[in-house]
Amino acid sequence: MLLAHGAGGGRDAPALVGVADALQVAGVPSLRFDYPYRQRGRRSPDRAPVLATATRDAASRLAARAGLDPGRLILGGRSMGGRYCSMVAADPENPVPALGLLLLGYPLHPAGKGEQLRVEHFARLHLPCLFISGTRDALAGHDELIAETKAIPGPVTFHWLETADHGYKPRKSSGRSSDDVVAEVAEVATGWVVSL
Hints:
Elements: E1 2-4, H1 14-25, E2 31-33, H2 36-39, H3 48-66, E3 74-78, H4 80-89, E4 100-104, E5 129-134, H5 142-148, E6 156-161, H6 178-195
Parallel strand pairs: 1-2, 1-3, 3-4, 4-5, 5-6
C-alpha cells in the first residue's frame, strides 16, 4: 500500500500513520513518503509533473522493496496525495498498474472554487476505489462527491466520517476526538485493502 501525503502535511500525517500501523498488524507492507518539496522543507507543493513523477517513483520503490509485481500495489493517500495516485493510475499513455485506490479526503475542487472540478481522469479509473471522506468536507461535499464519482467505471465504495471536515477533525459536539476518527479510518481502510 502506497500512502501519499496531502498538500499541507507530510508522511507523518496522523491518518497515514494510523493506516500504515493498522496495515502492518494485518501483514500488509506499506510505504509513506514525502514529496520533494517537503524533503526540501518547503510548504508549497511542487508542480504537477514533479508530483506525478515522485508518486510513480514511490510506487516502484514499494514494489521492489516488497518483492511484488507493481500491479499488486494499492495506491492512495490523503487529499492531494490520493489525487495524484488516482491521476497516475488513470494516465492515458502510461498508467501505473494497481489493485485499487484508497482516497482519504479526495479534494474534488480547490478551497472556495467549486467550479474547478478535479475529475477529468475519473472515466479512466477501471479499478476499485474507496473514498473515505468527512461529512463536512468543504473540498468534496457528500452529494457532490457521489454525483461526480458516477463517472468512474470501476467499483466505488464510500465511507463517511460523521461531522469530520477535510482534515478529519470532528465537531466537538460529536463527542469524538481526532484520534477516534483516525482509528475509524485505519480500520475501514485496512479491511478494504485486505479484501483486495
